[in-house]
Design brief:
The protein is 35% helix and 16% strand. It is built from 12 helices and 7 strands. The chain has a 4-stranded mixed beta sheet with strand order 1-2-7-6. Strands 3-4-5 form a 3-stranded parallel beta sheet. It starts with 9 loop residues before the first helix and ends in a 12-residue tail after the last helix.
């Protein structure tokens, strides 16, 4: 375990004086490493297929020796498959993420209809696309006519992005991965393959994986984020929501991230556990 009072997040480490820079593109990590060739630069690359594809391209094109990648990449569909294959998922249709389908192709979501027999549609982030996908799955459900509907055709095409997929396949392996609060999901993560192992921060800095400094997959005491992620609880049913856990003092990942369910509910005006649930 880390000594009491040690930084336990990048934000805390930065406040304590660590050299940590937020960046918006893998190319920025490359530029930082090139500008400081005598310093070790570690790029913490986290995300799903859409954000990991540019990281794979960076590796394929070549990076300097002083730049290493700390990869925390995940595939989206295995987590959805886990939800649908377990207990009653609690929903009757699914709108699949268009940004993932842009890279991987809409076919990756066909299992929703073929194996689980529920309506599905791929949507982008525009109002029009989201409304079209919502209308599609409702109409499919009412008509009992199920199919995978592509409601983001301007970017989502059969087969996805061939170059992005080729770079993912060239630089990375698909591996079992630990999802915080859920556990190991088979074939749901990315790891650098042996041709690029020299750029793997976990190999270059082996102390990173010392078990004593990690609580991999564990939720903070009292945090129900894993239950929220799995659709078993509303955010304001968490024991900490709006009391110990707020955006100013987030405890679990659902409140830390702007895309987390708890943060979204908070931003929508539901501020404590005593407020009624939405209809």
């Amino acid at each position: 375990m880390l000594p009491k009072g040690s930084p336990r997040s990048l934000h805390q480490a930065h406040a304590a004086g660590a050299d940590i820079l937020p960046i918006a593109s893998p190319l920025e990590a490359l530029q930082i490493a090139q500008a400081s060739p005598h310093r070790e630069v570690v790029f913490f690359a986290a995300g799903f297929e859409t954000t990991i594809a540019p990281v794979a391209s960076l590796l394929v094109e070549g990076i300097p020796e002083n730049l290493s990648i700390l990869l925390s990449g995940r595939l989206t569909w295995p987590a959805v498959s886990l939800l649908l294959s377990g207990e009653a998922p609690g929903f009757n249709a699914l709108v699949a993420p268009g940004h993932v389908a842009t890279v991987m192709g809409p076919e990756e979501w066909s299992f929703i209809v073929e194996q689980h027999h529920i309506p599905a549609a791929v949507a982008g982030f525009t109002t029009e696309s989201l409304l079209a996908a919502t209308y599609s799955v409702i109409r499919q459900y009412l008509d009992n006519r199920l199919f995978l509907d592509n409601c983001y055709p301007e970017l989502v095409r059969p087969g996805g992005n061939p170059s992005a997929r080729a770079h993912l396949n060239q630089a990375l392996n698909v591996v079992d991965a630990n999802w915080r609060g859920i556990g190991i999901i088979p074939n749901s993560g990315y790891a650098l393959n042996r041709d690029y192992v020299h750029s793997d921060a976990r190999k270059r800095f082996p102390d990173y994986d010392v078990p004593e400094r990690m609580r991999a997959g564990m939720m903070p005491p009292g945090c129900d984020c894993s239950e929220v992620v799995l659709g078993r609880k509303y955010p304001n049913q968490c024991r900490l929501y709006g009391e110990a856990c707020t955006p100013r003092s987030p405890i679990g990942p659902c409140m830390v991230s702007d895309e987390g369910a708890c943060r979204i509910w908070w931003s929508g005006g539901i501020r404590n556990r005593k407020m009624s649930l939405p209809d």
